[in-house]
Write a structure and sequence with these properties.
There is one protein chain. The protein is built from 15 helices and 13 strands. The protein is of the alpha+beta class. Strands 1, 2, 3, 6, 7, 8, 9, 10, 11, 12 and 13 form an eleven-stranded mixed sheet that branches. It has a two-stranded antiparallel ribbon with strand order 4-5. Strand 4 (about 125) and strand 5 form a beta hairpin.
């Protein structure tokens, strides 16, 4: 009966109740939306690279190795010997490897030298494969495949030519103009650093540096053993900065990591990408907490709006409550009526907010994927999201206690008295 009375009372105040529901719905939509973006961003960060068991580079810190090999941030401290790479790649525990060579750029975008294995084995975002938006993967020495953001910002298409510059800066005066690369493919957007990378063949990248390598070798020989940072690649087919490793058995990753870290041929560092990604994300945890605080404040504002609406309506409803008391309603019935209204408005606001969130996700997901590279799943609410909705419902009930208590204290005579 109380619930029916609450519905009829709200029907008489449709505009006020509608605005209250709207404010709660917007707050719930923002709270759950921010939470979902925060959760998906965290999972997406952890899924920047997927399916790779180990990343191997020259001796350095795990974070540095991950940043330059996966995120293209910073530069490698040294290169690897091709012989070391081949020795590890040929071990029986290894299923596949992807060599990576960094150090050059094109108009501010990093250039990555690799092989066709990169397109066959590289995974991101829970095992998704790299897909071509147009063209094909490289087959010839001077073929290049662009990430989606590179092609979009520089307005490149299949068939165009580009010139690689030495170094990683946006402006370079050392261009390899004598050996341009032809764009043969453009990758679909991934939302990862792959979008901002120019992929070329390892042979093509080595061909660019052949003359520099010969000059360095001659100088080293002239100086009879003087330090030379390019000596790592002497006598080898390629010079690489790092390589990705996929194992036949994932549980063997820790043992393989120890073997590589103790490799006698040269000092190497092997990292588990998932573990290092989590460590780096913990460093950026302050941003995550800030997002949660903002969404919580939005919810507080929405619930405060409901409290103001209920308190404002009390003065208008004194006579309504007095009439209810005069026909036999007890103070507890009036108290329950106010609390029932608060509960109904809160639950309706949560339902509308949840529906609005899913409509926004369905409508905006293609844009988020294509423009921001943010992949959001449109699935049922998670346990955490259900918990947040329960907290919102409980908060709505608690807020409804104050106007319910105030109306409970109004006497019958108070509501029937005409105030001048």
């Amino acid at each position: 009966m109380i619930f029916a009375l609450a519905l009829k009372s709200l029907r008489n105040r449709t505009a006020t109740a509608g605005l209250t529901v709207l404010s709660i719905a917007l707050a719930v939509m923002l709270l759950l939306g921010v939470e979902r973006i925060r959760t998906e961003s965290r999972e997406g960060f952890a899924a920047t690279i997927s399916g790779t068991d180990l990343i191997v580079g020259a001796r350095t810190s795990p974070a540095h190795l991950l940043l330059y090999s996966v995120f293209r941030i910073g530069n490698p401290t040294n290169n690897l010997r091709w012989a070391s790479y081949r020795a590890i790649a040929q071990r029986r525990e290894v299923a596949w490897t992807i060599p990576l060579s960094l150090g050059d750029s094109h108009r501010g975008f990093r250039v990555l030298g690799t092989t066709a294995d990169y397109f066959a084995h590289y995974r991101f975002s829970r095992g998704r494969r790299l897909e071509l938006a147009s063209g094909r993967v490289f087959e010839k020495t001077h073929d290049a495949v662009l990430g989606a953001e590179v092609a979009e910002k520089l307005n490149y298409k299949v068939g165009d030519r580009l010139v690689i510059a030495h170094g990683a800066g946006e402006v370079s005066f050392s261009l390899h103009e004598e050996q341009p690369f032809e764009i043969v493919g453009v990758l679909a957007r991934t939302g990862t650093p792959v979008d901002r990378t120019v992929h070329v063949t390892l042979d093509g990248l080595d061909a660019l540096h052949a003359k520099e390598q010969e000059a360095a070798d001659a100088l080293a020989e002239l100086l009879q053993g003087a330090p030379n940072e390019h000596r790592a690649g002497v006598g080898s087919a390629h010079t690489i900065s790092a390589f990705l490793v996929g194992l036949k058995s994932r549980p063997a990753a820790l043992a393989m990591q120890r073997v590589i870290n103790e490799y006698p041929g040269e000092p190497l560092t092997a990292i588990l990408p998932g573990v290092t990604l989590q460590e780096i994300w913990e460093i950026a945890g302050a941003i995550e907490k800030t997002l949660f605080a903002v969404s919580a404040l939005v919810l507080v504002v929405g619930l405060a709006g409901m409290l103001v609406a209920l308190l404002t309506s009390l003065a208008e409803r004194r006579r309504e409550m007095a009439i209810l008391r005069s026909v036999g309603a007890r103070p507890a019935h009036v108290f329950g009526l106010m609390l029932g209204e608060a509960a109904f408005l809160t639950l309706l606001g949560i339902a509308v907010g949840l529906a609005a969130l899913y409509l926004a996700l369905l409508a905006g997901r293609p844009w988020l994927e294509s423009r921001l590279g943010l992949f959001l799943t449109v699935g049922p609410p998670s346990t955490h999201e259900f918990g947040l909705m329960i907290v919102v419902a409980m908060a709505g009930l608690v807020i409804g206690l104050l106007p319910a208590y105030r109306i409970y204290r109004y006497s019958l005579a108070d509501g029937m008295t005409i105030r001048i």
